[in-house]
Structure to design on (262 residues):
C-alpha cells in the first residue's frame, strides 16, 4: 500500500511531542512567565500583609493606652512598640522585623486618641486607611 | 485499493477535539488563576477594612452611641478602595448580649463575590 498521509497514531504522537515541548518552553514565553511572576508576587504581598495584621493585633491587644507616637514609632503603655520603617515597607514590632513584600506598605500614622491611631495600608491594588485600637482581643 | 492522500474525517475530528479540549483547559486554568488572585487580594483588603469597621464601632459604643445608631453609611465612609464594596449592618440580641453584625462584600462583578462578616458585642 502506498501511504502518503499520517495515521491517527502518528498525529497523536506529534500532538504529545508538541505538548512536551510547550511545557519545556513555558518559562521562555514572556507573557506566561510574567503571569507566573505576578502570581507569586501577589501571594507574597498578601501573605506579608496578613502576617503584619496578626503581629499588630497581637501587640495591641495586650496594651491599654498609646503613650506617644514619634517619628513613625508607636509606644504603648506596656513597653511594647510598633515602628514603621523604610517608607512603610518594614515593620518592627517589639524587636521582631517584618519586611512587607512587593508593593505592600503600611505607612502614614495618624494619632487619633490615646487608644486609637490610623495607618494607611497599601495592598498593591487598594490603598485604604485602617483604624487601629488598643486593648481589643479577638472576638 | 484506493490510494490515501490525507487524514480521514474521523482522524481530523479527533485531533480537532483534542486540540480544543487542550485549549479550553488552558484558558479555564488562566481564568481560575485570575479569580484566585482577585479573591486573595479581596481577602486581605476585607481583613483590614473589617478591622477598621470593628474599631470604629467599638469607639462609637465607648462614646455612648447605641448599636442601632451605627448605620451602613457610617461604615461605608471608611471604604477607600478603588473597587466596589457593599456593607450591610444588622443588630441582633439574645438573652445575654447584644451585638452588631457587619457584612462586607466585593461587588465588582455586580453581585457579591464573597461575603466577609464580623461581629461586635456591646459590653
Amino acid at each position: 500500500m502506498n501511504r502518503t498521509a499520517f495515521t491517527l497514531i502518528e498525529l497523536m504522537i506529534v500532538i504529545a511531542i508538541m505538548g512536551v515541548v510547550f511545557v519545556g518552553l513555558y518559562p521562555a514565553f514572556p507573557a506566561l512567565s510574567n503571569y507566573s511572576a505576578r502570581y507569586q508576587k501577589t501571594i507574597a504581598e498578601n501573605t506579608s500583609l496578613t502576617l503584619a495584621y496578626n503581629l499588630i493585633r497581637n501587640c495591641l491587644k495586650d496594651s491599654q493606652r498609646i503613650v506617644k507616637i514619634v517619628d513613625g514609632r508607636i509606644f504603648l503603655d506596656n513597653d511594647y512598640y510598633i515602628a514603621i520603617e523604610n517608607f512603610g515597607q518594614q515593620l518592627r514590632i517589639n524587636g521582631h522585623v517584618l519586611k512587607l513584600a512587593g508593593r505592600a506598605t503600611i505607612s502614614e500614622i495618624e494619632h487619633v486618641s490615646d487608644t486609637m491611631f490610623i495607618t494607611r495600608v497599601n495592598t498593591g491594588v487598594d490603598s485604604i486607611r485602617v483604624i487601629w485600637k488598643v486593648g481589643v482581643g479577638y472576638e | 485499493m484506493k490510494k490515501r492522500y490525507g487524514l480521514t474525517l474521523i482522524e481530523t475530528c479527533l485531533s480537532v477535539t483534542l486540540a480544543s479540549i487542550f485549549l479550553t483547559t488552558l484558558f479555564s486554568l488562566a481564568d481560575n488563576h485570575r479569580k484566585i488572585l482577585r479573591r486573595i487580594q479581596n481577602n486581605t483588603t476585607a481583613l483590614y477594612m473589617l478591622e477598621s469597621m470593628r474599631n470604629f464601632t467599638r469607639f462609637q459604643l465607648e462614646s455612648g452611641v447605641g448599636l442601632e445608631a451605627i448605620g451602613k453609611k457610617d461604615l461605608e465612609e471608611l471604604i477607600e478602595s478603588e473597587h466596589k464594596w457593599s456593607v450591610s449592618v444588622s443588630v441582633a440580641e439574645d438573652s445575654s448580649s447584644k451585638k452588631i453584625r457587619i457584612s462586607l462584600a466585593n461587588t465588582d462583578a455586580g453581585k457579591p463575590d464573597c461575603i466577609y462578616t464580623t461581629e461586635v458585642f456591646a459590653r
User: Anything to note?
Assistant: Chain A has a mean pLDDT of 87. The first strand of chain A starts at residue 66 and ends at 70. The longest helix of chain A spans residues 30-61.
